[in-house]
Amino acid sequence: MSDTDDLCRDLILDHFKNPRNHGRLPEPTVDVEGVNPLCGDHIQLTLAVNGEKVDDIRVEGRGCSISQASASIMTQAVKGKTFGECESLVREFKRLMLENAPADTLPEDLEDAAALEGVKKFPARIKCAVLSWNTLTEALKAYRESRAPVRKKHEEQ
Ligand code: ZN
Questions:
Q1: What whole-number distance in Å separates Cα of residue 92 and Cα of residue 32?
Q2: How far apart are CA 34 and CA 100, in angstroms?
Q3: How far is the centre of ligand 1, averaged over its atoms, from the C-alpha of 36 (Å)?
Q4: Which residues of 78-89 are buried (b: 16+ CB within 10 A; e: fewer)?
Q5: What are the sequence ranges of the domains in the chain?
Q6: How many angstroms does the Cα of residue 113 sit away from the middle of ligand 1?
């Protein structure tokens, strides 16, 4: 195992054990559940949205280390960003995970997300890694359409 693999594993474990933005906002604008039935991963995202900006975001959940670490990394990347910026970060992350885009072309906000690149070696786990990012995308889309508090569930197919 290379040093890079070790560093990536350590970073993923750190996000798993000490998740960033952990918990639930008391009065969220957006409250979405994300489920990956293949692995049994659950995440609950709560967002405080102002205009088209994510003022605050929290996540809690249960499941494998990849799903939970990826959710922590996602909240860290998108907190304080506009919807457009969030969507662009999701796009870049999915290019890394699904289209073999090289990790060194990722924007700075996705520095920690690059650690998840090794997950590509285990195709069954890619859904674990993208769950929170797809759930966020659904949440932003639903809010854009309704402009009202959103409660929703996203399920990986
Ligand atoms: Zn999983």
A1: 22
A2: 24
A3: 7
A4: bbebebebbbeb
A5: 3-155
A6: 16
- Provide the CATH number for the domain formed by 3-155 in this structure: 3.90.1010.10
Q: Distance, CA 125 to ligand 1 centroid (Å)?
A: 6
Report the separation in Å between the CA atom of 65 and the middle of ligand 1, taken as the mean of its atom positions: 7
Q: How far is the CA of 124 from the centre of ligand 1 (A)?
A: 9
Q: 9: CA distance to ligand 1 center in Å?
A: 15
Question: What is the full per-residue pLDDT of the chain (157 aa) written as tens digits?
Answer: 567 788 889 999 999 999 999 999 999 999 999 999 999 999 999 999 999 999 999 999 999 999 999 999 999 999 999 999 999 999 999 999 999 899 888 999 999 999 999 999 999 999 999 999 999 999 999 999 999 999 999 999 8
